[in-house]
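User: Um, any thoughts?
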Amino acid sequence: VLLLIVVLVFGYVSIKHVYGNSISNAYSQRIISVFPLPAVKINNTTISMKDYLSEYKAIENFFKTSEGGEMPSESQLQETILDTLINKAIIKQLGYKNGIELDNEKVESFYAEVSSEGQGVDVFKEELRQNFGWTEDEFKKRIVHSIVFALQMNEFYLSDTDTQIEQINIINKA
C-alpha cells in the first residue's frame, strides 16, 4: 500500500511538473519520453506530448544551428507548434472522412523533387540531420506527408462540384 501511494504521488508530481513547466526542462522531457501524456485532443485524435516535444526539439535545433537566428519566445513557440500539430490533425481527419488516403507515390515524387533541388540529395540529407536532427524518413513523415496530403485534399475539393457548392453555401451563411 505504501508503495502504491509513493507511485501515485510520484506520478502526480511528475505530471504536474510537465504541464506546469517549460518543455525545455530536462526532467519534463524525461517524463514525456516515458509516459504517453496528451498535449491536446482534437475530436478523436490525441496529439501526444512526445509529438509536441519532437517538434520543439527540431525547432530548437534549427535555431541553435542557424546563423543569427533568434529563437522565438516560449509562448510563441508553443502556440506555433500546437497550431501546426492541430492543423495537421484536422486535415487528416477531413481527408479520412472523405475517403482520401495518402498516396505514397506522390510522397516519394515530392521528396525526390525537394531533395534534389540545390546541391543534391546527399547535401540535403546532411542539412536535415544538422539543422533538425532528422533522418530522411523523419522528414518525410513530419513534413512531406502533411504537404502531400494537403495537396490531395485540395485536388479532391477542386474536383468535387458538390463539395465546392457545399463550401460556398457555408461561406455565404457566415
Q: What stands out?
A: The CA atoms of residues 118 and 158 lie 32 Å apart. The longest helix spans residues 74-97.
